[in-house]
Amino acid sequence: MRIGILQCDDVTEALQAKHGNYPMMFTRLFEHLDTELAFSVYRVIDGNYPNSVDECDAYITTGSRYGVNDDEAWVIQFKHFIAKLYACKKKLIGICFGHQMMVKALGGEVIKSPKGWGVGVTTSMITQRKSWMDGAAEAISLVVSHQDQVSKLPEDTEIIAASDFCPFYMIQINDHFLGVQGHPEFSKRYSEDLMNARRDRIPHQRVEIGIESLSLPVDDKLVTRWFVNFLY
Predict the structure, then answer these.
(1) How many Cβ atoms from other residues are within 10 Å of residue 80's Cβ?
(2) Fewer CB atoms near the end CB (10 Å): N or C, the chain?
(3) Is 96 a catalytic residue?
(4) Is 56 known to be catalytic?
């Protein structure tokens, strides 16, 4: 299976030497699985797209410092591409910004959350089980980093995981779109460095709570296995 990585941003230069860029994080994420996966990277932030949606069997998005409501030419183009993937019934996994964009592209709504920044490790309860969900997990914990949140879902959307802080944490739209607000590709070390780099915009207390939360275990491998099951 060939997966197209839709790159919506770059890791800041100050952190790339230590943590790599987003495509590397995603290829590393899937390394532990015994599957024959190949990857193609499309820098959609620079307007680089596949010539045909069928260049890849499925797609996955990176996160982004941009918001889905930003009036940026590349963001608008990306929204149209996501709508095209949905119309063509291509499988897509949306991570953070991509999770929000699949909602936005299909008629839902995304807002800057009045609850403020979500950072560090958060836990969400599984609200329903699907056939692609191995294991008996009642909740999942992942690294998060976001201000925006989905506030209104499109039609044909099922809520898979939720929390009081983020009620639409993991969703499935029809049979071919899967979105999650968390970042299974982020390491805890990267999360800590990212929080420290953003102390000028994230409230001090929220950063300290976020850093403390990094002592919690995360379910990155479990969720990655779910992704592969979903794509197949």
Answers:
(1) 9
(2) C
(3) yes
(4) no
